[in-house]
Amino acid sequence: MTAPAPPAKQPPLLTVENLQVEFETYGGTVQAVRGVSFSVEAGKTLAIVGESGCGKSVTVQALMGLVPMPPGRLKSGTAELRGRNILGTSQIDGLDFRGREIGMIFQDPMTSLNPTMTIGRQIAETLEVHLGWSRKKAFARAIELLDMARIPEAAQRAKQYPFEFSGGMLQRAMIAMAIACEPAILIADEPTTALDVTIQAQVLDLLGDLQREHGTAIILITHDLGVVARMADEVAVMYAGQIVERGSVDDIFYRPAHPYTVGLRAAMPSNNPDAEHRLLPIEGSPPDLFSPPAGCAYAARCPHAMRICSTHEPAPFVVGADHYGKCWLHHEKAAGGASMIAAAAAPPEKKS
Asked: Which pLDDT tens digit goes with each residue over 75-99?
């Protein structure tokens, strides 16, 4: 008797290839996103992490058609949502996919919501525009969505204005608005910024519950590795407009393949009683994206940099199943290079 064949792997919901975004300024051309590629599957969470200014938010804004042009410009790339390229357009089959197919939770809800409209009205408007619902039906659904977002007294709160909500409640209202049309993909751009740790945990739990209930794919933009460890299935590490490492959350935390990832980990607080309690900052600054370096963008800050790092950009080296890192230390001629990264990633011993 033959064993049943394993189920065929479903294609990704969203596949991005070689995305490049530039901005024309008085000082020159800023190469904000430089050849970014990734994919995300249904029911999975992809976290995009990196320092402020590395291109995380610009990447997802370009996918959503939210980059103003000019000064922005899509230099190249494709972004296929269920096999259809959405880059450079806001519509699929004549309908706006933003809000309907892809929902977005913005970084600052206070500036993202209209202060002259009630919370319920703003959520209802999404349903009216995308699904053609009547105002009465849409407002009733808005109350249900606020209740799903765990906002107490949802019927009363729906009639209030943004200034009457706390920061945590505003973020919940943004989540309710983003999931109103039950999109296949939810983009969360720094969803826990400026929230205290208790509210952060509640917001992340809410996102996790919604994902399990609806099978939603989540693209999580953050620089908080604690949030990544809690939420992500896969992680893309960005630096200077490029993805320098991509792998599972276990790969990133336990088997990092790029010195920058090691640096991010070292700068993260630890509650390990056996480790030395000392944060190790990454010295130096990111490169000037008006004129990116010819080689590895991280070379000037990397403690393991070699001569080739400053002159030639590394290709993505495969270091494991669905795990790669853009670092010359993985080249076959870099003797002991990968072991250097592993040694640097090992937690420091506590001094006696």
From this structure: 988 998 888 888 877 777 657 788 8
The answer to whether the Cα torsion of 86, 88, 94, 96 is positive or negative is positive
Domains recognised in the chain with CATH numbers: 14-232 (3.40.50.300), 264-345 (no CATH)
Across the chain, mean pLDDT equals 84
CB 88 within 8 Å of CB 81: no
Residues 6+ apart with CB under 8 A from 338: 257, 319, 329, 330
- Residues whose CB falls within 8 Å of the CB of residue 69, separated by 6 or more in sequence, listed in order: none
Kindly tell me if the per-residue pLDDT of 20 is higher than 90.
yes
Q: What is the pTM of this model?
A: 0.86
Q: What region, left, alpha or beta, does residue 161 occupy, with left being phi > 0 and alpha being psi -120 to 50 degrees?
A: beta
Tokens 């896969």 correspond to what residue?
234
Structure tokens at 57: 């938010």
Q: Compute the distance between CA of residue 50 and CA of residue 246 in angstroms, rounded to an integer.
A: 12
170-202 pLDDT tens trace: 888 988 888 888 888 999 888 877 677 777 888
Strands 242-248 and 317-320: unpaired
- Residue 313's CB is within 10 A of a number of other CB atoms, namely 18
Contact 174, 112 (CB under 8 A): yes
Helix (H) or strand (E) holding 319: strand 317-320
Contact between 178 and 186 under an 8 Å Cβ cutoff? The reply is: yes
| Residues facing 103 on adjacent strands | 186
Helix axes 259-266, 337-345, angle to 10 degrees: 10
Hey, which residues does 22 pair with through a beta bridge?
A: 31, 73
